[in-house]
Predict the 3D structure of the following.
Amino acid sequence: MGHLVTKRRRRALAAALSALGLAAALKGAAAVRDAPAPAPAGPASCAELSPAALRGRRIFHHGALASGEPVEGRLGASGAALHGKAAACAGCHGRSGDGTSEGGVAAPPLTPEQLFAADRAGGAYTAETLAIAVRDGRAPAARELHLVMPRYRLDRAHLDDLHAYLRCVGRDADPDVSPEALRLGAALPLTGRFAAAGAAARDVLAAAFAEVNAQGGVFRRRLELVVADSEDTLDGAAATSRLLDQRVFALVGSVWSGDGDAAARLAADEVPLVGPLGSGLPASDPGDGVVFHLQPGLDTLARVAVAHLAAAPAPTGAGALLVVHPAGPRGDAFLRGARSEALRRGLPAPVSFPFEPGRFDAAAAADAAARLRPRAVLLAGEGDELSRWLAAPSPSATRPRPALYAPAFLMRRDPGSLRLAAAARLLLVHASPTDEAERLDLLSLSSFLERHRVPPRHTAFQASAYAAARVLVEALKRAGAHLTRPGLVAALEELRGFDPGPGPAITFGRNRRVGAYGASLTGVDPASNDVSPVSAWVEVVP
Ligand code: HEC
């Protein structure tokens, strides 16, 4: 996968060059080397990095301090600032520190052989001279470094951490990778109320890995599934901590609420989680970090609803949109999505009707709707809010209720609810496609399950687990034989429109951790009470 790595590096260098206005001047001198062969396994001292080297590694690969604070560097004389990931050394010097060159400016190798060799021209680097180079842009023998090498604002302690890591860069085989096997973890509820769903997801993950192993594994590594019981919850925090104690390489299709110490630890240990299950949709895109969501955020569902209703002419006399949502980050994300899309489409700013989670007053919300006469109502919630809204008597018998949009996961599918939904002209917003292609994907999932003798149950859970396994395996293949966690994260970031089977196609990026920005709509037919597609998959700009 050398070309992918090189492309990334070129991007970082090119960005720095253009910030300096140098790109044009140096065009034509471009000389991009092929990525060198993976570094040989290093001395034993690099097999297990010291705490200082681990902190240095974070600066090198992520541009972040152990506290999570972003690192800042300034490009030479122009003073243009690079922050966080954009300031990560790996962006220019390569993930294995093997260097690259672009536009005639070479980011040299920073490997131990290069920096610390006794016979190095100008003298081997020491902690002291490295600090001067990184902070002040002066290499040994007082050589001024090119403007493209940022001048970093880093304390001496952080520079010493970098020094510790540079003694191992390119040799730090991830401690949790062996040539024979890769341990991948999933926190799943195996006891308690959700036990059947948890077991269903576990069986799918195990079958997906068995299929890969039957073909020889990924770069000859067997994929081993390690499951920790999240017990009677879909939260997963405690079980995730246990998996991290067992040093799994990555997490996949694992239940996750995003809260608490486990989230902090996942980020600190840089353990990627691909395709979290069970907590509903992400509120919005976390931007970076280690959790890669396969489904759109709640903000995106609201945006697709607004895009849909904006396409129809406004009924005369209709007011702004009314957004009924729980207070808190998830409801706020839903509201934010509705507001930004309304703005984009020249609609009046939506009116917010927040409620305390678990204390939804359907009658009060219906009253608000009767007063405002909104063009449409967008309703978010966590539980039975939609059922209660549908069951609330319409305050005005003479005026029809406005169009209603709600996330599909809030809908109950019993005949009574469907009848009320049809009468309310409810449109359901789905985080997955609902078209013919999706139906075929689900069919191919059922034949996969049949092949592996996994009984189909909790199919939404199974479909999500299957997609998560597919995305992870694809990224592992792209990450190459010299596998590291930063390498896996980079391979995930390179996915563009990858089709994992069920669910939306997946695109991640440097600052994109939500794989899909779209949704599809269904409605309930008043004659038959059947749910049927109203729109194809609608994408919005991230
Ligand atoms: C935007 C691209 C970029 C980033 C980011 C970057 N460098 Fe550099 N670095 C360069 C370039 C280009 C040079 C070569 C400058 C020269 O030789 O005049 C260089 C040179 C160096 C040198 C001197 C090497 C030698 O052979 O004397 C060191 C040491 C170095 N970088 C360390 C780092 C560290 C550590 C980081 C992260 C904290 C980092 N660099 C981040 C582009 C970058």
